[in-house]
Design a protein that fits this description.
The chain is of the alpha+beta class. The chain has one domain. Strands 1-2-3 form a three-stranded antiparallel β-sheet. The longest helix has 12 residues. The two termini are about 20 Å apart. About 0% of the residues are buried. This is TNase-like domain-containing protein.
Length: about 70
């Protein structure tokens, strides 16, 4: 969720619990039309993207597979 949307705080806390004080690896896929980096995120080989999706903190982007 975006800042101000329902679930934003819970998603932020969940994400922080997975990445804080850890080495994060990025598999950069591309930059979107707003010049934002779209990437797959891993900690110790574990997909943080999939963790967020599986726990309903995030939705998969159409056409992006990590």
């Amino acid at each position: 969720p975006e800042r101000g949307e329902h679930g934003y705080l819970a998603a932020t806390i969940a994400l922080q619990s997975q990445v804080r004080s850890r080495v994060v690896d990025l598999d950069i896929l591309y930059r979107d039309k707003y010049d934002r980096v779209v990437a797959c995120v891993y900690v110790n080989g574990r997909s943080i993207d999939q963790f967020m999706i599986d726990n309903e903190y995030a939705r998969a982007w159409r056409g992006v597979q990590c």
